[in-house]
Amino acid sequence: MTEELRALSVAEVVDTLRRAIEGSLGQVWVKGEIGELKVNQSGHWFFTLRDADCSIRCAMWATYARRARVVPPPGTEVYMLARPDFWAERGELRMTAVTVLPTAGVGDAQLELQRVREALAADGLFDPSRKRALPRFPRRVAIVTSLDGAALHDMVTVARRRWPARIVVVRSVVQGEAAERALVHALTMVNRLKADVCVVGRGGGSKDDLSAFNLEKVCRAIAAVKVPVVTAVGHQTDFTLADMVADARAATPSAAMELVLPDRNEVLRLLGSIGSHLGKALGRRTRLVRERLYRTEDRLSRAITDALYERRRALDHATAKLDALSPLRVLARGYAVARGDDGRVLRRTADFETGKRFNLRVSDGDVPAKAE
Amino acid sequence: MTEPLPLAQSIRRLEEIVRALEADDTDLDQSLALFEEGVALLRSARGRLEEAEVRVQQVLEDAAGEIRLGDLDA
Predict the structure, then answer these.
(1) Which of A15, A98, A335, B21 has CA atoms 20 to 30 A from the CA of A354?
(2) How far is A239 from chain B (nearest CA, A)?
(3) A349: which DSSP letter?
C-alpha cells in the first residue's frame, strides 16, 4: 500500500516564489549594462541588464518608456529604477523598470530626485485632479517660512496693499540639514491653525538651497496639508517636486501672496456693481408692479363703464315695453274704464243698473257718472 | 450679536438677491425685503473691508507641543 506523495501544485510553487521575490527587494536602483533591447509595437521595452557574470531579464512598460529621451543602445551603462517581479505564466523572474538613465553624467542627487519623483507619481500626488482651488476671500493665511531674509516682509507688504487677512507665520528652517524635520513639523502644524490657505515661502538661493523641497517627506507633508498650498520656493526657472505636489506655484513669495489674496479695490468695485444692480433690479420690479397696477385700473374702469351702459340700455328697453303695455296708453287713445263704487270694473250692460252711480276713468282723471 | 457672514458667503447671498429681484416672479413685499437685506449686507461687507487691517501673528509652541499665537512685527 503506497501513500500518495504530498506534492505542491505549480500554482502553489509560483505563488510562494512570487511572494518571496516580490518581498525581497522592493524598488531599488540597479547599475548595469544594457544587453539586448527590443521595443515592441505598443512601446514597451524588453531588455536584459548584465554585468561581467550575470544578467537579468527586464521590462519597462510604455507609460514609463515614453518618458525616456533615447532608447539606450546595447552596451550602455545605465542606472535602472526597478522592482523584481515574477511572471507567473512563464515562471520567469523579471525586473520591472520605471526609469532607465545612462550613467554618464548622472550623480547621486539626480538618482534620488528621480526615485522620489517616481514614488510621488506612483501615489498620484502630481495628479491634476488633486489640485484644489484657492479660496476666493481667505480670512486666515498660514505662511511657512524662515524669518531670515526679506521674504516675510515682502509678503506682508503685498497683504497690506491687497487684502486685510490675518497672517499666521509658522517659522521653519528651510535649508540645510535641519530643514526636512522643521518643514514637516511646520506643515503638520498648519492643520491645527484653521487657516484657509497656506503659502510655503522662501527667497531665492543657490540651487542646492532648494534641495529640502525635493525631499520625499517634505513633499508628502505638503500633500497632507488640509487646505490649498501655494509654494514659492525658488525662482522662475527652478522647479522643485514640492511645486509639483502643491496646489499652485508662484515664482516668488510676493507673487504667491498676489495669487492667494484678492485685491481689496477690485472687491469694493464688485460690491459697488452689485449695489447698482440691486437698485436697478428693485426699480425695475417696482416699475413693473406700477405698470401692472395702472393696467388693472384701466381695465377695471372700462369694465365698470361697460357694465353700467349695458344695464342702462336694458332699463330703457324695459321702460319702453312697460310703457306700451300701460293701460294709460289705451285711455290716451280715447277709451274709458267704468268702475263701480266698490272699484270693480263694469264690463257688461248688465253691470249698469238704471240710476247706478259709477266712475268713468279717462286719460287725465275720473268723471262721476250715472246710468239712465 | 450674530457673527457677520464671511465675505464669500455675503457676496454669494448678494448675487442670489440680485437674481431674485431680476426674476419676474418675486412679489413686491418680498422684493422690498430682499432689497433691504441686500443693502445691509453690502454696507457691512464694505465696512469690514474698509476698516479691516492686516494682522501678523506667529505660532509659538511650548515644550508640551501646545500652540498659541503671538503678534509679530513684520
Answers:
(1) A335
(2) 28
(3) G
